[in-house]
Amino acid sequence: MDLGNINPVLLVASLMISATPILLAAIGEMVVEKSGVLNLGVEGMMITGAVIGFIVAINTGSPLLGFVIAAVAGAALSLSFGVLTQIFLSNQVATGLGLTLVGLGLSSLLGKPYEGQKTATLPKLDIPILGDLPVVGRMLFSHDIMVYVSLCLILAVWAFLKFTRAGLILRAVGESHDSAHALGYKVVRVRLLAIMFGGACAGLGGAYLSLVRVPQWTEGMTAGAGWIALAIVVFASWRAGRVLIGAYLFGGISVLQLNLQAAGMTWGVQYLSMSPYLITILVLVFISSNRSRSSHDAPANLGQTFHATR
Amino acid sequence: MIRRTLLATAAAGLTLAFGAPAIAQDTTKACFVYVGPIGDGGWTYQHHQGALALKEEYGDKVEIAYQESVPEGADAERVITQMALSGCNIIFTTSFGYMDPTNNVAAKFPDVKFEHATGYKREHPNVSTYNARFYEGRAVVGHIAGKMTQTNKIGYIGSFPIPEVIMGINSYYHHAKLANPEVELVVTWAYTWFDPAKEADAARAMLDQGVDVITAHTDSTAPLAEIAKEGGSAWGFGQASDMAAFTTNDDGTPGPRIASIIDEWSPYYIKRVGALMDGTYEQIDSWAGMPEGEVVIGTMNDAIPDDVKAEAQAMIDAITAGEYHPFTGPMNKQDGSAWLAEGETADDGTLLGMDFYVEGITGDIPN
């Protein structure tokens, strides 16, 4: 074993790239859940974003346009979930699972002609001054634009929920939709907007997979990333900052264990791979066993159907 | 899709029962269970190509059906049962993890033939196993890797620590070492057959640590896509399928795929279904390789110097002619104990149960 082979600079750089898809999907899902809706279709929206982003990038030669259209596609797909659950009051869990199945099937259908093709990928940004710094420059300031977009998104969501009136309304809808309704807030409209935001973020996350991280389209390429994003939201106990920590932890551990293996360590690697899941379970046990920490808990109306006449 | 086929076949079955039973003998239904999507561009894609070749060969006499992305384990048993119920005459289960489900279902359907790829359990007379000698291909790419590496560090992305993969690692390393005594092997385990992002991460981790030639034992093309980001300073091989899309870089220079190991299943599928149709079918344990055309090395591209190409071709010819066995002594086990004496070749039993590295590989095989 030679741990000296692991270059911490490259390790951090590759974990940031590795974590970006789940980070994008998780922050979107967090906003959805904050509004009281449980959308289990993240995987389906991600893979739809992946295939649409790829198709657009191939046909237009512009990966950035691919990201934009992928976000639109994710939002459009999530809107079908929104209409079903918010207007026709279908069961959120079942509809969300259905959305995942639809997304997986639709993407493999749409993606068939694009298998094995190569696309232009996002260039690494050349940030003056910062990018030239020793160590930190290579580690933090040499990525493509989406890495920074995802970080800005975390900051924006945090600020939105904490400081704005609209954020307060969104949280109120998630905590008690009946009270919010009584106060005159449009519960369904707020939730539809949140769902579409979640879909757009998942679409971006998927497009990051197919356009940057593994620049190609392969059927089923998200391979469960959407479910990890859902786990991260729980792990983060519905807080934006912790979503960042959670996503980098999940991404970081998976990159770290591969690097440890490449450096010759074979013992305990499996345990390291499963540790994020174990930590999620421990966090769940911890937050649900401690009532006084109710602020860490899930939004009170999470997953509940709202109907104004009830 | 499967349900519809089931209904259709049930309806057909009813008609036949009251109508002309002889027609039932005219079409043979061959069914395939795939572990990944056909579009993986690798393992499952090649099996599907084999299935299509089968259809091509026999035309209307054969009907094919398949199910993609079937998880290994209990779900597989459900899918295989459903296929057996839907009138399949022969069912090919194409991943190691289907071993027990295949045997369990075979016990319940003695009239249906089952063919399990890469396994070793034949608990019932209607279960055959088939595999290909991929280690022959690994020997050739190992030789190329040993010659091509500039950093003297070559990599292998393992899926699971099973004999099949360990055999490949040993063959790859042994021949790289023969070609270049300085070579060092880095193995990373992905613990998955198909997860493009993780396969890419594994390639990235090795590239970051100075590995410059990587072969993968997973199913997607993601490792090659990751190697391509190095822009011509690192190389890889097509795995299971030719992966020809990666033969040239964006700037037109050759790479990152410099050769490939192609699993060619069509001869086997055509032979077995043919045997079933003409009544000569019997239970077998097939393990064919280059001589039978089941393991093929894809085009070597121009990144490989001509003399190395010639050496690789000579090795291919020798293996195909049966003159060279990739595991020929002298070879020692990792702990230094003697395994094969000078000129001795490994027997199939040892290879199929291989649970040790050969001398020179560092690190342990995980449990």
Specify the helix fraction band of chain B.
Answer: 25-40%
Order of helices and strands of chain A: HHHHHHHHHHHH
User: What would the CATH topology of the largest domain in chain B be?
Assistant: Rossmann fold
Kindly give the count of domains of chain B: 2
Largest sheet of chain B: 6 strands, parallel
Average pLDDT rating of chain A: 88
| Uncertain stretches of chain A | none
Number of strands of chain A: 0
Q: Which consecutive residue ranges of chain B, at least 5 long each, have pLDDT under 50?
A: 1-24
| Top CATH class of the largest domain in chain B | Alpha Beta
Radius of gyration of chain B equals: 21 Å
Strand content of chain B: 15-25%
Structural class of chain B: alpha/beta
Main location (chain A): membrane
Keywords (chain A): Cell membrane, Membrane, Transmembrane, Transmembrane helix
Pfam families (chain A): BPD_transp_2 (PF02653)
InterPro entries (chain A): ABC_transp_permease
Model description:
Chain B: Keywords: Signal. Chain B: It comes from Marivita lacus. Chain B: Residues 28-308 form the ABC transporter substrate-binding protein PnrA-like domain. Chain B: This is BMP family ABC transporter substrate-binding protein. The complex is a heterodimer of chains A (310) and B (367). Chain A has 310 residues and is mainly α. Chain A has one domain (19-236). Helices cover 69% and strands 0% of the residues of chain A. Chain B is α/β, with parallel strands linked by helices and 367 residues long. Chain B has two domains: 2-132, Rossmann fold; 134-263 and 294-352, Rossmann fold, CATH 3.40.50. In chain B, 38% of the residues lie in helices and 19% in strands. Chain B has eleven helices and 14 strands. Chain B has helices at residues 2-18, 43-58, 74-85, 99-108, 134-148, 163-179, 196-208, 222-228, 266-278, 306-320, 348-352, and strands at 28-33, 62-67, 90-93, 113-117, 127-132, 153-158, 184-189, 213-216, 235-240, 257-263, 285-288, 295-298, 331-332, 338-340. In chain B, the strands form three sheets. Chain B has a six-stranded parallel β-sheet with strand order 2-1-3-4-5-11, sandwiched between helices. Chain B has a six-stranded mixed β-sheet with strand order 7-6-8-9-10-12, sandwiched between helices. Chain B has a two-stranded antiparallel ribbon with strand order 13-14. In chain B, β13 (331-332) and β14 (338-340) form a beta hairpin. The model of chain B is unreliable at 1-24 (pLDDT under 50). The interface between A and B is large, with 43 and 46 residues.
